[in-house]
User: What shape does this take?
Amino acid sequence: MKLYTKLLVASLFLSVSAFAAQPVGLRCEYLVNPLGIDAPHPRLTWMLADARQGAKQSAYQVIVGLDSAEVSRGIGNAWSTAKVNSPAILATYQGKGLQPYTKYYWRVQAWDKDGVKTTPSAISSFETGLMGMGNWKGTWISDHNGVNVKPAPYFRTTFSTKKKVKSARAYIAVAGLYELYLNGEKIGNHRLDPMYTRFDRRTLYVTYDVTAQVATGKNAIGVLLGNGWYNHQSTAVWDFHLAAWRARPTFCLDFRITYDDGTFETISSNEQWKTSLSPITLNSIYTAEHYDAQLDQPGWNTVDFDDKKWKPAFARPTPSQNIVSQQVVPVRAVETIPAKSITKLDDESVVFDLGRNISGVSKITVSGKAGTVIRLKHGERLYKNGHVDLSNIDLHYRPTDDKDPFQVDIFTLSGKGQESFMPKFNYKGFQYVEVTSSEPVELNKESLTGYFMHSDVPPVGTVATSNPTINKIWYATNNSYLSNLFGYPTDCPQREKNGWTGDAIIASETGLYSFDGITVYEKWMADHRDEQQPNGVLPSIIPTAGWGYEWGNGPDWTSTIAMIPWNVYLFYGDQKILADNYDNIRRYVNHINDLYPSGLCSWGLGDWVPVKSVSPVELTSTCYYYADVTILAKAAKLLGKTDDYAKYTTLQAKIKKAFNDKYLNEQTANYNKGLQTELAVPLFMGIVPDNFKAKIAAKLADRVAADNFHLDVGILGGKAIMNALSDNGYADVAYKIASQETFPSWGWWIKNGATTLYENWDIDAKSDISLNHIMFGGIGAWLYRGIGGIQPDEQQSGFKHVVLKPNFVAGLNEFDGSHTGPYGKITSIWKRNGNAVEYTVTIPANTTAGVVLPQGKKASLNGKAISTAKAIEISAGTYRFTIN
Ligand code: BGC
Assistant: This one.
């Protein structure tokens, strides 16, 4: 650590421990100082930094205004709340109507546990965007080409600033993908913007602060458009090439300059812009990108470029009537991964190995003769002869010719010295890159670099244990979670890139423990609302070009509509996502009720990719349906919808009765045949009658023992089994499963070199063999929950009250985990010390926790004997327990 960093860390620490309490971590709509806020009532959140034992916020005041100096003096001309006696750390803006294009400053004043004023927060800001379709000045433009034309188009214009510039903003709405340039420089570090939506129902725009890039005098704006999911030219089984919205990519841009004298000017996209084809000769989000450097037009996005040969742009219709701001953490190239090795295969080809499986792109740097064609084939596996093997990931691709090979970038050299290529409008899933050149070129290990791309969600969780395999499972789970997060959750980054609902249900809790992903989930739920049919039906992949309303969309997959809002509510304590989707959940539940009036639902794919045993679809789907109705009833209660609460509580009871009447054998205390999934899913979904829970859990533990403490589940059982065991007194059994290193187990993948999770327990299976799937990723959440015991409490969600219920499982010596929730960081650390366990917990200011320790054991807190008969209630601070 550099000295400066050390000092910074030390001073941050001091500011929390020794100095006065203060609200920190201010965010608007869960983003730091965001631009482009369209919400008329944005949510403002903060945390209280106060390291004192028992610290809490007794009151707060939020001040919002146009003048930062006034706000810092406590004057808010837009909104100033009274002193609100409340521990709340979320306030929804209720001040004067927000104006478009306007920066608002805000700060929070808190009062501590003793009613003493804290140091006020630092000043934070948010800036509104267009706040409505009517404010756009620009014309949607494209070039004259049709959907099948392969090269990506360039667009440019120039303008002159007339006076001294105070600030400048670019607002760009795109159907397709874009890169925006000002005076030759790329604006921002986002990749694959804007995010994928159902383009004909909702189109996103992105806002940039370009004040620093605007030159005095002449300026040039350049826009490069890519196809993305909008103009899907590659053909695969999901029919994206048949999308009703499909057209040549198009954009609308407003470039708004505010001058020092208070006047402003907007430079907009229109038919005077010029366009030309770029050197990107093919771009497909699904397959790859081709670039012919011989077609380079140096300086195309700068002022002095001669664009006489370019054509005028062409006005296009608006892709949707709903152009809204993209208020989501962007996709970025988050990690740079140098190649670990290079292997020469023959005179034409070499293979680079990144040493780990990722989603993203590679960048090659090379020099060679003009016209040399370099092909970069990206894959997850190698054939025995060392060449890259695509057979596990290209099987759903239906190419019409050989010009668009799967996961193969094609780079044609200009011959002008050293040149580099990295795709702009594509990403892939890969560990290996086979590089083939039409002419001899020099390549070494440094010639190729990998970039791990994904939604750049901030990490909020840590897990480290004394078992290295468990640590690697956690790492691989996070890698697969991130590899499958691109503004919507996907199943895999290579074969499909589909927003498979079922995979996302399983991944959501895992993701929420490790990453601050609320913005992505809120966006994806808007995608759900766009896709839902009036009768409540959802497609199995979201977004979709139409595929998926007819296959795979039973409640075991599309329960995302209820389960994701519920999980986000549990983790963030913010009801908005439940309120926004309430009507959609209700329509969904009503539709299933119409189709399955008995309460038993047989719609679904069932326990997908099982090890060996197959459970009835009706058994698992009914449990999912039951869980949805349970969530709906709870949401009705929270939102004060008393009639609905009564109605759906009755429906819940009906489903529970129908299910248990059919599947529960009361004599033997068993469900159906007593398979792992058949016992685990009902337990996990809470449909087991109370008086049978212990017996069913015991049966499940016996079943697992009979299966030699190995899994016999598919994805539904895989999510349920760990919690079903550890929540019902069998954490040791769950840990035995988790720590296996032989087939079938997570550890078996790790022992075979996995750095991501796989699609199939059987590494040598013939189908379903992607090496980067998140659908068996439930174990990630279980490590925090089942071993670390960090759990949200639905009575006080958002970790306002934390449940700390660690399991000191046999066979593990140490666990060290943390999760930073809306109030701050929660840590749960335990360590064996001879026959005793030392357990240390920290919970943040303004929260309380119930610590549940193993009953019947002797325990002490800071040296003083305590009873473990019931939960030990603690307030903010650090506590050391010893359990003998
Ligand atoms: C996907 C899965 C998905 C499944 C649905 C597969 O092709 O990769 O992850 O959930 O289809 O059946």
User: Anything to note?
Assistant: Residues 1-18 have pLDDT under 50 and may be disordered.
